[in-house]
């Protein structure tokens, strides 16, 4: 299927590893000029080198997307290099408790109040900041695509991820409202909901790419929660998601907006 994305400009947040990295590579492979955002510049630069080595065009930009001033500077750098952004992929997002503390996340009552802000800043304000900076350029160009990457926790809730679930649910409501407001500008806004994803950014455990049901009992149990994973014998991978993003970023999806699509192996069926 020809997606006709050549020459478009995309900005992908959290593009330095995992799902974000694969989205950057997928879009670059379609001829898109890719601005790779990551909190850690060296990660973004590594993806830029991958894209350029394959003959594509890319720009690595470090920014904390929870900071509106840093986001404005990031979009200014993108405009200076490639022009206004056509495609915004709001991919950055992490449950801070799981990232920094490891192991079982705390319940809502166990979670320190200061950690709430960190989750909300990244998962809600990060998306809002990026949309606020991207929309004027899309209006100037007469259209654009916004694809948000959320978690199924935001669609159904998940114990021990209360603040994260709430933040992701807020992302979905915000996306639907923006889709309503900017349909007249030919700007499509859609959301992809993920379950557990195995990728190279995970150091060990059932989500490490080398883990198999035969070598990891936790992974074997997890597969039971994902109907298609029972047949495939694996969890989702970044490449399962990146192609869907590319489709939604294209004019093949011109009449799809305000939608939430689960790319989670049937973990949630709505």
TrEMBL record:
The keyword Oxidoreductase applies. InterPro entries: NAD(P)-bd_dom_sf (IPR036291), Sc_DH/Rdtase_CS (IPR020904), SDR (IPR050259), SDR_fam (IPR002347). Pfam families: adh_short. Keywords: Oxidoreductase. It comes from the Bacteria. PROSITE patterns: ADH_SHORT. One of its GO terms (biological process) is monocarboxylic acid metabolic process. Its EC number is 1.1.1.100. The keyword Oxidoreductase applies. One of its GO terms (molecular function) is 3-oxoacyl-[acyl-carrier-protein] reductase (NADPH) activity. Belongs to the short-chain dehydrogenases/reductases (SDR) family. This is Short-chain dehydrogenase/reductase SDR. It comes from Cupriavidus metallidurans (strain ATCC 43123 / DSM 2839 / NBRC 102507 / CH34) (Ralstonia metallidurans). The lineage of its organism: Bacteria, Pseudomonadati, Pseudomonadota, Betaproteobacteria, Burkholderiales.
């Amino acid at each position: 299927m020809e997606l006709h994305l050549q020459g478009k400009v995309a900005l992908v947040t959290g593009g330095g590893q995992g799902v974000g990295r694969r989205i950057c590579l997928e879009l670059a492979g379609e001829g898109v000029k890719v601005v790779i955002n990551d909190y850690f510049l060296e990660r973004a630069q590594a993806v830029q080198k991958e894209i350029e080595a394959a003959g594509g065009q890319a720009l690595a930009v470090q920014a904390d997307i929870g900071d509106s001033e840093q986001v404005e500077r990031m979009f200014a750098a993108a405009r200076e290099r490639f022009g206004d952004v056509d495609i915004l992929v709001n991919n950055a997002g992490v449950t801070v408790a799981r990232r920094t503390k490891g192991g079982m996340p705390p319940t809502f009552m166990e979670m320190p109040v200061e950690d709430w802000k960190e989750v909300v800043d990244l998962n809600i304000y990060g998306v809002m900041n990026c949309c606020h900076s991207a929309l004027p350029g899309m209006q100037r160009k007469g259209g654009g695509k916004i694809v948000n990457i959320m978690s199924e926790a935001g669609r159904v809730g998940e114990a021990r991820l209360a603040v994260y679930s709430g933040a992701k649910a807020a992302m979905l409501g915000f996306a639907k409202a923006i889709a309503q407001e900017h349909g007249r500008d030919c700007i499509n806004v859609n959301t992809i909901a993920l379950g557990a994803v195995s990728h190279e950014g995970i150091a060990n455990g059932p989500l490490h790419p080398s883990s198999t049901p035969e070598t990891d009992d936790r992974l074997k149990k997890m597969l039971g929660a994902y109907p298609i994973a029972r047949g495939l014998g694996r969890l989702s991978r970044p490449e399962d998601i990146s192609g869907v993003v590319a489709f939604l970023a294209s004019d093949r999806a011109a009449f799809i907006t305000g939608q939430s699509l689960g790319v989670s192996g049937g973990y949630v069926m709505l």
